Amino acid sequence: MAGGKLTQGELAAALRTRTDAADGRLRVLEGLDADALAWSPPGGGWSVGQVLEHLVVSADSYLDRLPYLLERSAALHGSADTPWKASLLGKWLAKSLEPGARAMPAPRIYRPGAAPRADVLAELLKRQARALELMEAAAGLEWRRVRMGSPVTPLIRLNLGDVFTVNVVHVERHLGQIDRVLAARGG
């Protein structure tokens, strides 16, 4: 999905479906107690709570900037039928975040602290809903022409479809990590 021949509408529909699936998997975690959220694998690695915190922090770094970007880009008209194509760096970034891709250390700005914020799961679900709202608000723009620098490095510039795709792929990747942590804990 990160770079095939899609329209913006097709990409948006696929990302909505994937976000809904991720939300369903996240909601299963609502039954975890504080000990399960805080448990870290003995060999090292993040707890489920830290993974969720990482996803909240990384989502905020994009979502907080999008309303301004959408407002500033209002003249770049597009529609559901407008062709979309991933940028070279957007395609690379999405591919590098896919589940099963080689693990990379999180950029410093995205590393969670020892303990996540209160109600971290609910906060992540709010970010997921906000991403869908912003995608809907951007439906009338030409996503290939709306560009945004990565919060990590200005060397990476993403188009709007890349931003939405990276957000979804990133959550999917870390859902796999959460599954592994829970399996290692025995539940």
The CATH architecture designation is Up-down Bundle
N-to-C CA distance: 32 Å
> Overall 3D geometry?
elongated
H-E string: EHHHHEHHEEH
> Which whole number gives the mean pLDDT?
93
Low-confidence parts, pLDDT < 50 over ≥5 residues?
none
Main sheet, how many strands, which sense, barrel? 2 strands, antiparallel
The fold-level CATH name is Four Helix Bundle (Hemerythrin (Met), subunit A)
Beta-strand share of residues: 5-15%
Largest beta sheet: what is the strand line-up? 1-2
Q: Tell me the structural class.
A: mainly alpha
Total strand segments: 4
Number of helices in the DSSP assignment: 7
Helicity range: 40-55%
Q: How many domains?
A: 1
CATH superfamily: dinb family like domain
Our Rg estimate from Cα atoms comes to 17 Å
Assembly type of the chains comes to single chain
The CATH class is Mainly Alpha
Please supply descriptive tags for the structure shown above.
Four Helix Bundle (Hemerythrin (Met), subunit A), 187 residues, mainly alpha, two-stranded antiparallel ribbon
Explain briefly what this protein structure is:
By secondary structure, the protein is mostly helical. The chain has helices at 8-27, 34-38, 48-63, 66-72, 88-97, 120-137, 160-185, and strands at 6-7, 83-84, 147-149, 157-159.
Description:
By secondary structure, this protein is mainly α. The protein has a single domain, classed as Up-down Bundle (Four Helix Bundle (Hemerythrin (Met), subunit A)), CATH 1.20.120. The chain has helices spanning 8-27, 34-38, 48-63, 66-72, 88-97, 120-137, 160-185; strands at 6-7, 83-84, 147-149, 157-159. A hairpin with a 7-residue loop joins β3 and β4 (157-159). The radius of gyration is 17 Å and the shape is elongated.
